[in-house]
Amino acid sequence: MMNNQVTDRLASTKFLLVITGAGISAESGIPTFRGNEGLWKNYRAEDLATPHAFARDPETVWEWYDWRRGIIGRAEPNAGHLAIKELEELFDNFLLITQNVDGLHGRTGIRNMVEIHGNLWRVRCTREGKTSMLMDVPLKSVPPKCECGAVLRPDVVWFGESIPSLALEKAFRVIEQCDTLIVVGTSGVVYPVASFPETVKNNGGFVIEVNVEPTPISAVADASLYGNSGDILPMLVKWLRRKRQEG
Ligand code: OAD
Fold it and tell me: Are 150 and 128 in contact (CB under 8 A)?
């Protein structure tokens, strides 16, 4: 039975890597990017999520992030986020790599996490590169300005930009080390994360996918669990705890 295979594997895992995408936050009421209800249905990524768009029209880009922060600010971490925090406690070696910029994982108190696309509650000076929390910055203009006078931008990775090297190095290191990967709520089309499941697999690791529907990752995954991450992840935690108790 699939459940047994997944539970057995988890029970013998030495290093668990979890990767998440927008789907984990969907049950918190935060729109995903692709699909019928996705942000990229109503907005063009190239008008809002590229360095070129920000250089051309910083006000519109900033307001779009303000709108998203409004939704996210009213949202709470859901059962899926909380289950991942529980997984962190159940494994000696654990890392979460999230593509999400909403900060919801951080609000569960998780410690071992790489936000590979940044965080929209942080800002970065376009001149000095210094980062700060948005709430610590005086909001006198749109977009706000750094003390040095330069415009502040969201501290996120836009299309055409590279992932900060420290985050990327850590991700690549753990992809080599982990023996099990759970990949949750991502369409698996944005690189570099899209290539991670295959790399883990080629290194002999076991890949578990959690999604509401099949994705390109399904072809690589050893097990695909279809359903809401807020239902499936707590179930995985329950199975694992039971298995560990049985010894
Ligand atoms: P997508 O919107 O591309 O994909 C969301 C995935 O979540 C889809 O595969 C859905 O089927 C799945 N999903 C939706 N609801 C779910 C639920 N309740 N439980 C489980 N799965 C669910 O989002 P990402 O893959 O995260 O990048 O997108 C990757 C990157 O593309 C984002 O980080 C962002 C975007 O453009 C940048 O902005 C740089």
Answer: yes
Q: Would you call 117 a catalytic residue per the annotation? A: yes
Nearest CA to ligand 1 atom 18: 228
Q: Considering only CA atoms, which of 179, 178, 189 is closest in space to residue 217?
A: 189
Q: Residue 117 carries which side chain, given as an amino acid letter?
A: H
pLDDT digits (tens, 9 = 90+) for 52-102: 999 999 999 999 999 999 999 999 999 999 999 999 999 999 999 999 999
* 167-184: pLDDT as tens digits: 999 999 999 999 999 999
Ligand 1 binding site (Cβ under 6 Å of any ligand atom): 21-23, 26-27, 32-35, 38, 45, 49, 99, 117, 157, 159, 185-187, 190, 210-213, 215, 228-229
Tell me, what amino acid is at 75? A
Q: Which CATH number does 4-30+77-117+163-246 carry?
A: 3.40.50.1220
Give me the CATH code for the 31-74+120-156 domain, please. Answer: 3.30.1600.10
